[in-house]
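Project standup — Tuesday

K.O.: blocked on the structure for the chain from last sprint. Re-posting the sequence here as requested.
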Amino acid sequence: MGKLILVGAKVTDGRAAPEVATIVVEGGGITEIRPKGAPATEVGPEDRVVDLAGHLLVPGLIDAHTHLFMSGDIGSYEKELLKDGVPLRTLRASAHARLAIDNGILTVRDVCTEGAGYADVALREAVRAGVCEGPRILPSGPGISITGGYLPQGFAPGVCVPSGCALVDGEDAARREVREQVSFGVAWIKVFADWFATDATTGEARELPTFTRPELSAICDEATRRGVKVAAHVTSDAGARQAIACGAASLEHMGALSRETLDQAAARGIVLVPTLAVVENMLETATDDKKRDRAKRRVDEARAAFGRALASGIAIAMGTDIGAYPHAKSSRVEVGYLVDYGMTERAALLAATRVAADLMRLTQTGSIAVGATADLCAFRGETIAASLTSAQPSLVVQGGRVVRDRLRQAC
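H.V.: unblocked you, prediction finished:
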């Protein structure tokens, strides 16, 4: 098999402004980067030259917060858990994985299968073996919360319903659950570090930390001992502070976090995964004034908190919560929201590539450099946000192999 030679595109991985360059791919990796004006690469009889004039060439995108086993349809959560079953949901997840490739998402961290157990570990192995098509998957299996600390909720006492995640109470149970999940092949531990609790007197719903500090510390300690990291769902300042203190590696979602809390997270090297797309989707799909007002408050809170996050200097990785909104909308929309909320275009691209790769300890992807894995996407256009959020990529290269070629349609 010869070389793949990509010519004519403006190239950037976010570390520098886009510049025309030639990228040479061989054996699954990038072997040469030739700037405009450099001597042409020698072309052999088995080599393939692809003209990408008019395109922006970027690393394969990374979504650090996905739910491949959920469809994102409004009101579908209980149906999927109680009626659809794991086999059907796994088949859907395979289709969602293929759709990720369509959109240039070449790595995902799937954070909780929402009642589908370790099916994400199985899907990772199927993709690795070439049984089905999909991105590189870092699975977290069932996720972990406490009794009364996750969905489904609101059923009558005595009704037996499956939980959307594993439930633990007490330090020993927490450690045992981490050990079990690691033994079944998860790459991350997902915890729901806070959740809504309804006051029995006032009926008011409040976001409260789920675990006791010893419980969450036990989870983080055991995960570290087993060589994996902890991703913490947090939408409250109290939940975030406890997750930071206990050793979580990432804070998931963009709740109303204070500047002080974000400063603490930044000082400890914790990464923020804001999932703006799902918040915006709530506003777009609100079906009545009450839901619309609630969604508008969430969007306003997220915008204000994101501004504080930028000011704190915390590392931000792109994650979307796709699966909580339909996969057909794609993860690429998050790049546009990151820019709209205040990031520069290059910083948003870094969030969707290098920063997310660093969070996942993937040293060979997320950048365009000699020696890096050849995960690449070419989008028609020249500006980052507009190119990445409009049409699907014209060309997708996964591990040095062309897996999507829409160049004729893109012309």
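K.O.: great, moving the ticket to review. The longest helix spans residues 289-312. The chain has 14 helices and 21 strands.
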